[in-house]
Design brief:
about 230 residues, 5 helices, alpha+beta
Length: about 230
Amino acid sequence: MGLSIASVTAFSHGMSAQGRTSGQADPEKAAGQATGSAVNDTDTSSTETVTERPVREAQQTSRLTPEEQQQLADLQQRDREVKAHELAHKSAGGQYVTGGSFTYQTGPDGRRYAIGGEVTIDSSSGSTPEETLRKAEVIRRAALAPADPSAQDYRVASQASMVAAEARSEIGAERREELQQQREAAQEQEAEEANAEQGILPNNQRAITSFEAIAGSSLQSNPDPIDEIV
């Protein structure tokens, strides 16, 4: 079963009335993890050079009102935080953290900025309790990896902790059962060895008794008549 951990998506800041929604997230979501600081939705000339683009953006920003400039700064900061947040999840989660999508909001400069995001975590059980424990520990670290874990992050971390506790309990029960089996096997071996020793001693004792009986009989036998005459 997969779980998702997401950064906080709530972001609201008043916008001046220029035909844009106020404080609402863009309904579009990226199909995969977005790269870069923002997605440019404005039409630009195909011949625009790398050095011309900052000039154009600076000109656009200079036309914004102070309120719009503050809103733009907030959106840019939020965009960096969201993407760093999801990257921290993926870096810490390794193979168990996949995907990545973002919710965008269009800024006063016409560009889209990420205001929320999420990644998917594989929370299925491992093939053994040991594997489940290792996986749960990785998931917990991944959930708490960002500098500012969200409420959902904490919930995922809590679930991972419970899974890890159950796995530890199963591992402990298996080890106790193995120790019990080892003790029983040792006791059976000791009993077999004791029985074997008890079986050998009576035989030896019977042999010694028979030898003594024979020896005593020879010593106490009557002398031969010929020996007496001689």
